[in-house]
Specification:
The complex is a heterodimer of chains A (about 500) and B (about 350).
Chain A (H helix, E strand, L loop, with lengths): L4 E10 L2 E11 L4 E5 L6 H8 L7 E6 L2 E3 L4 H7 L1 E4 L11 H6 L5 E2 L2 E2 L1 H13 L16 H12 L6 E5 L7 H16 L3 E5 L3 H7 L2 E6 L2 E7 L5 H9 L23 E8 L3 E8 L4 E5 L6 H9 L6 E6 L2 E2 L5 H6 L2 E4 L3 H5 L6 H13 L7 H15 L15 H14 L4 E5 L7 H16 L3 E5 L3 H7 L2 E6 L2 E7 L5 H10 L2
Parallel strand pairs in A: 3-10, 3-11, 6-9, 9-10, 15-20, 15-21, 18-19, 19-20
Antiparallel strand pairs in A: 1-2, 1-4, 4-5, 7-8, 11-12, 13-14, 13-16, 16-17, 21-22
Chain B lengths: L12 H7 L2 H8 L3 H17 L6 E4 L2 E4 H24 L7 H18 L3 H25 L4 H22 L10 H8 L1 E2 L2 E2 H18 L3 H10 L1 H6 L4 H27 L11 H11 L11 H20 L7 H16 L1 H15 L1
Antiparallel strand pairs in B: 1-2, 3-4
């Protein structure tokens, strides 16, 4: 069978980095081809070359046997290559119709023919089995529906290739299943699908073949049977994965010590039911629950980023009267938010400035850390957390996601906290960094820090937690101690509560 | 509609760019290169069209010459622009600076008329600037009104308030004399105009505050990502409020110099369009209206570019009617040179020529 799209000998050089080095990649009609690699392996660059967002320095792209050189995403789409990215590229305030027909609105007597436009929008969605009110603004729909609208927009009538870049990152299990059905349906119609995801189990559920990139080179290609998951992971990170999973931390060391932070029936109306929580030195408390169960809110409330309107938070036994990020920081409590981009990093500021920010605000504006001190602390953190950056003055916005996450951790750690609150510390980062962060959490606890870790990944929680608090519908529904915690037990606890 | 374009081998351009020695590129990428280049260019044109432009003489015990004149006239705009740079670094903008000049000037003339001590008036003027800054800062940081709208309120009402203050004692554009204030504005200390000394002191104070305390880091973190700064323990509200207070205070300094210079309170025209020159100076100096960075050196150079331009148009003998248009054209060129796209094009053009 001949490939529907075939990239051969693709190279792309960026200043200082060879992003792609003579890469081969092809997709056959009716095939889902997963493109795997760590952050910085060259996945995004390859996708951008394929969709015309970047011009390659060398190599050819053939679409159904004919050589093409897409100059822009628009040209690529017109040629039959559609792409949907993780961050949905729709205009949230505009209607579904406008989003789907923008740029090629049907006209009648020189005026826009809105009823024809609506029909086009409906037809585009119908191909994906979606039936929604096309007059409502896109922003009023859930992320899952928005994703489907974005796919509908990417698919021209004669589309032959669809690129899906982390399409499931913000979808729950049901929504993911629905997306997979649509992918299977598109496959059946002969489209070639390029699938990028860091959820390895999803890759195996939906893909036929896998191409693995590392440092801009293709290191492997094969069917899913030829590349089992353990091999895949070691291909991606270039070394054998040490088996960190499910080595439970021992529990006996910590239960006796006095808590640093105590939450007594703390809650906030319409947001979070009152809950009890103790954070003890040397102990990792996990927050488990489904999307929207209140994990993030709990973490933020404990930190003071959300004000509680009932109950009391005490630090070292003293009630904290005005609990805020600033007061928490002063008491030695730091927080790494889930949403790196909007709440975490300050993108224009350098790695150094981002790392010292919390420590500096703890010291106050008058006591500026000397430049030498700043550089020393930054160098220490870059070495300790293995942050990949050419130098400490690089704007953080230019680092990869995993390294941004490490910079955030460094910002917390450099202020020498007693309590560290982590919300989704490993979201969207690559396998290598993931393992490093898990190891780090354990080391910190072993040194006597109290940690609160909210995560949607149960395996991660099981690996690090001494105790897991289970959330459901904005309520803490159960506590499972480390020894007896299993995946099944957590799921049962979520299911049993009602 | 889906005809694939026939392919050609990839161009070797990036390889050539790679081979280029990086010293020139590094220099071209330095953020101060274009503003300084613009300033040098304006001065070179001056040297060509009016011989003796660079002459500095000592007349009646004080320095005289076009270069001194540029600094002299550039001092009040520099004060305003520095305050503006602080506000812009927080992702804000202060449109009310022109009106703050009007209000401050009106209060000064009124209190002089009432017979206050001129030292008290000096303090009063600074307090008026701070009060205006407090108002703006309150709207922006506490009520969370968008800065452009929040400061528009004082921009519109300020000149009216100035006129009303004039009415308090029946004066229309009342004139006054004050040895102290006029000494600060138009006098000289030894050879040097006093206002240049005042300006230098203020510049050093702002620089100390921004670069020798953590205030600069907090400003930039609030401007770059306010939520993140807040979660890192930075009191975003207080930082925002301080930014507008500083803008108000710096504008009051400019207002004292300008009002003492004209000997009168003229709320309708004093400081007119000064907000635009200040914003322009910040932008020429490399600042972005999206916030997140503050460049004091760039801002000062920006002020000098604008002032040098104005002075050279006046000395060139070009009819003053051309002033604004020529200024606009030159500013456009500077901004074009600064845009990342044009810059990349220039850099690659140079690289190609060399390689």
């Amino acid at each position: 069978m001949s490939a529907i799209i075939e990239l051969s000998g693709i190279s792309k050089q960026f200043p200082g980095v060879r992003a792609l080095d003579n890469v081969e990649f092809s997709v056959e009609p009716g095939e889902t081809h997963a493109l795997m690699g760590e952050n910085g392996a060259g996945k995004s660059t390859l996708i951008k070359v394929m969709t015309g967002a970047l011009q390659p320095d060398g190599g050819t792209i053939r679409l159904a046997g004919k050589e093409i050189r897409p100059e822009s995403p628009g040209a690529a789409r017109a040629a039959g290559i559609g792409a949907v990215y993780q961050e949905v590229n729709l205009i949230p305030t505009m209607s579904v119709t406008k989003n789907l027909t923008l740029g090629r609105l049907p006209r009648k007597f020189g005026l826009i023919d809105w009823s024809a436009a609506r029909a086009i929008a409906k037809a585009k969605l119908a191909r994906l089995g979606v039936d929604i009110d096309v007059e409502r603004p896109v922003g009023s729909y859930s992320v899952a529906i928005q994703q489907l609208i974005a796919i509908a927009r990417a698919l021209e009538d004669d589309a032959r290739v669809l690129v899906l870049d982390e399409p499931t990152a913000s979808l729950d299990a049901n929504e993911t299943e629905r997306l997979f059905e649509i992918i299977r349906d598109l496959k059946a119609r002969g489209l070639g699908i390029v699938f990028i995801s860091h959820f390895i189990d999803q890759v195996y559920r939906i893909s036929d073949r896998i191409t693995v990139l590392r440092n801009g080179r293709r290191v492997a290609v094969g069917t899913v049977e030829e590349i089992p998951s353990l091999k895949l992971v070691s291909l991606m990170i270039g070394r054998e994965l040490e088996h960190v999973e499910h080595q439970r931390p021992s529990t006996e060391t910590v239960t006796s010590s006095k808590p640093i932070l105590t939450a007594k029936s703390v809650g906030r109306r319409r947001l979070l039911e009152p809950f009890e929580l103790d954070l003890r030195p040397g102990e990792v408390v996990g927050l488990a629950g489904l999307l929207g169960s209140g994990r993030t809110e709990t973490a933020k409330l404990v930190f003071g980023a959300i004000r509680h309107d009932s109950g009391e938070i005490a630090i070292d036994g003293h009630p904290s009267s005005s609990h805020s990020p600033k007061s928490s920081l002063m008491a030695g409590i730091t927080f790494c938010p889930e949403d790196r981009k909007s709440e975490g990093i300050v993108p224009e500021l350098s790695v150094r400035e981002n790392i010292i920010l919390a420590l500096q605000s703890k010291r106050g504006w008058l006591h500026l850390l000397s430049r030498k001190e700043q550089e020393r602390l930054t160098a220490e953190m870059i070495a300790a957390l293995n942050i990949a950056t050419p130098d400490a003055e690089k704007p953080v916005g230019q680092l990869s996601g995993g390294n941004q996450q490490k910079v955030l951790l460094a910002r917390s750690l450099v202020s020498n906290p007693r309590v560290l609150i982590l919300d989704e510390p490993t979201r969207g980062i690559d396998v290598g960094a993931h393992a490093e962060i898990v190891t780090l959490i354990r080391q910190l606890a072993a040194k006597g820090m109290a940690l609160l870790v909210a995560s949607s990944e149960l395996d991660e929680l099981l690996t690090v937690s001494h105790r897991i608090e289970v959330m459901r519908d904005r309520r803490m529904v159960g506590e499972i101690s480390g020894a007896e915690a299993t995946r099944e037990k957590i799921i049962q606890t979520i299911a049993a509560a009602s | 509609m889906s005809t694939p374009t026939p392919g050609t081998p990839a161009s070797p351009k990036p390889a050539a760019e790679q081979a280029q020695p990086s010293a020139l590129k590094a220099l071209l990428r330095h953020r101060l290169v274009w503003p300084i280049l613009a300033l040098v260019l304006v001065l070179i044109v001056d040297a060509i069209i009016s011989p003796g432009f660079f002459q500095i003489r000592i007349v009646q015990g004080r320095l005289f010459g076009n270069l001194i004149d540029i600094l002299y006239r550039g001092m009040p705009p520099a004060m305003i622009a520095l305050g503006m740079a602080v506000v812009i670094s927080t992702k804000g903008i202060d449109l009310s600076v022109g009106s703050i000049i009007a209000v401050t000037g009106a209060v000064m003339a009124w209190r002089i008329h009432e017979g206050d001590s001129h030292y008290v008036i000096l303090l009063t003027a600074l307090c008026v600037g701070l009060a205006c800054g407090l108002w703006n800062g309150f709207l922006v940081s506490v009520l969370e009104i968008q800065p452009i709208i929040a400061t528009l309120i004082l921009m519109v009402s300020g000149r009216g308030i100035g006129l009303m203050i004039n009415l308090l004692y029946g004066g229309t554009n009342p004139s006054f004399t004050s040895p102290l204030l006029q000494g600060l504005s138009t006098g000289n200390l030894g050879l040097v105009p006093t206002r240049l000394v005042v300006g230098a002191v203020m510049i050093v104070l702002v620089w100390l505050l921004v670069r020798r305390t953590a205030f600069g880091l907090f400003l930039e973190s609030v401007g770059g990502n306010a939520k993140s700064a807040w979660l890192s323990g930075v009191s975003s509200r207080l930082i925002l409020l301080s930014a507008y207070l500083i803008s108000g205070l710096m504008t009051a300094v400019a207002a004292i110099i300008l009002t003492a210079d004209t000997h009168t309170s003229d709320p309708v025209t004093s400081g007119l369009y000064s907000e635009l020159d200040a914003i322009l100076a910040v932008v020429i100096g490399g600042g972005s209206l999206a916030g997140g960075r503050i460049y004091l050196d760039g801002t000062i150079i920006g002020v000098l570019v604008i002032q040098a331009l104005t002075t050279s148009i006046l000395t060139s003998g070009l009819p003053p009617e051309y002033n604004l248009v020529v200024k606009a054209v030159v500013v456009l060129i500077v901004l074009l040179l600064q845009s990342a796209n044009t810059r990349a094009a220039v850099v690659s053009l140079l690289a190609r020529r060399k390689g």
